[in-house]
């Protein structure tokens, strides 16, 4: 059944929105704004401390996690700007004007950020889990890697995600019929096939894969600790275990966040709007908190960042590589 429309005095056509539709949009826009701001505020500090402190940049797992946090931060910015954009449209009375899918994509930068950062977050989570699998399966070989390995891996993933973005732009550019409301949810700014068979499917696949891959990681952790010999080896294995358990928690959070995507892909009716708009953000919000609380290096450097205390001798760094040139002094 087609949505009722009406002609405005300015010549534009808009949806004849019901009070419930208006309320739902207001609620969703408010939630987008708040959760987007929280995700960005929780994610970007980890990126900043890894960038600022050489001792953290030397750690392969921290470089990869900083890239994951940056992806979450981009997603948070997308939600923040999307929420503000929708609220402004509502205040102007233009939220339900009919536009094309191409207009929704090209005229709303937040949807471009959604297309890029949405799959990127779950892909990076899978990369982080694969990194843990390598670390626990072949610890001697893993410790021979430098942080160049991490930078190349991150660069390849970020570069790859540009390709689906360009494909999405090309496919959507052919959709010029004005039949979508101007508040432009992501599903309205892409083609149905792209949204379902790439955006949703890749997020589901990578989230589920992260959890499944972590099962052998957990088994390997247990075996490695049982078979460890010598204090030095125990120290290394304890570090691997600590980081790996943290990654396991974040992988589980990613899977929980993917539940609404699984429901959407399966065609389940989205009547549970409150859960649908909040649940996907669990990973972006809590992952950064969990990682900061569990990793002493990140926690210490974050405190140093916010207290402007950059003296390296005041902070304990559990690096297995020699670190030089740490930032000194106060801001």
Taking the alpha carbons of the first and last residues, their distance comes to 61 Å
The CATH architecture can be named as: Up-down Bundle
Write down the overall geometry: elongated
The major beta sheet can be summarized as: 2 strands, antiparallel
Number of strands: 4
Strand % is under 5%
Radius of gyration: 22 Å
| CATH domain fold name | Rhopdopsin 7-helix transmembrane proteins
Number of domains: 1
Tell me the name of the CATH homologous superfamily: Rhodopsin 7-helix transmembrane proteins
Helix content: over 70%
Low-confidence stretches: 312-325
CATH class: Mainly Alpha
Q: Mean pLDDT score, rounded? A: 84
Strand order of the largest sheet: 1-2
Structural class comes to: mainly alpha
What pattern of helices and strands is seen along the backbone?
EEHHHEHHHHHEHHHHHH
With helices defined by DSSP (H or I, 4 residues minimum), what is the helix count? 14
What report would you give on this structure?
The protein has 331 residues and is mainly α. It has one domain: Rhopdopsin 7-helix transmembrane proteins. 72% of the residues lie in helices and 3% in strands. It has 14 helices and four strands. The strands form two sheets. It has a two-stranded antiparallel sheet with strand order 1-2. Strands 3-4 form a two-stranded antiparallel ribbon. It is elongated and about 75 Å long. The N and C termini lie far apart (61 Å). Its main location: membrane.
Topology:
Blueprint: E1 5-7, E2 13-15, H1 19-52, H2 54-57, H3 60-92, E3 98-99, H4 101-106, H5 109-137, H6 139-144, H7 147-160, H8 162-172, E4 180-181, H9 192-227, H10 231-257, H11 259-265, H12 273-278, H13 282-294, H14 296-307
Antiparallel strand pairs: 1-2, 3-4
Helix pairs in contact: 1-3, 1-13, 1-14, 3-5, 3-7, 3-13, 5-7, 5-9, 5-10, 9-10, 9-11, 10-13, 13-14
């Amino acid at each position: 059944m087609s949505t009722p429309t009406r002609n405005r005095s300015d010549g534009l056509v808009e949806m004849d929105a019901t009070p419930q539709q208006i309320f739902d949009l207001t609620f969703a826009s408010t939630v987008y704004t708040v959760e987007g701001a929280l995700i960005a505020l929780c994610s970007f500090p980890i990126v900043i401390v890894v960038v600022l402190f050489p001792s953290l940049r030397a750690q392969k797992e921290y470089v990869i996690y900083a890239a994951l946090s940056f992806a979450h931060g981009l997603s948070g910015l997308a939600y923040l700007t999307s929420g503000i954009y929708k609220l402004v449209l509502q205040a102007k009375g233009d939220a339900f004007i009919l536009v094309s899918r191409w207009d929704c994509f090209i005229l709303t930068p937040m949807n471009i950020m959604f297309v890029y950062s949405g799959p990127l977050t779950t892909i990076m989570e899978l990369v982080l889990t694969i990194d843990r699998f390598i670390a626990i399966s072949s610890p001697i070989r893993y410790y021979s890697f430098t942080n160049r390995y991490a930078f190349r891996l991150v660069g390849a993933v970020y570069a790859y995600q540009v390709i689906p973005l360009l494909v999405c732009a090309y496919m959507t550019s052919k959709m010029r019929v004005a039949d979508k409301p101007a508040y432009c949810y992501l599903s309205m700014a892409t083609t149905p096939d792209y949204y379902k068979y790439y955006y949703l499917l890749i997020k589901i696949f990578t989230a589920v894969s992260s959890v499944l891959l972590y099962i052998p990681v957990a088994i390997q952790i247990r075996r490695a600790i049982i078979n460890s010999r010598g204090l030095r080896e125990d120290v290394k294995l304890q570090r691997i275990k600590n980081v790996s358990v943290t990654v396991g928690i974040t992988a589980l959070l990613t899977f929980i966040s993917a539940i609404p995507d699984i429901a959407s892909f399966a065609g389940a009716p989205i009547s549970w709007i409150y859960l649908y708009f909040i649940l996907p953000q669990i990973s972006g919000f809590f992952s950064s908190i969990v990682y900061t609380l569990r990793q002493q290096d990140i926690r210490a450097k974050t405190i140093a960042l916010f207290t402007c205390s950059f003296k390296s001798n005041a902070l304990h760094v559990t690096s297995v590589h020699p670190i030089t040139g740490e930032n000194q002094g106060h801001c």
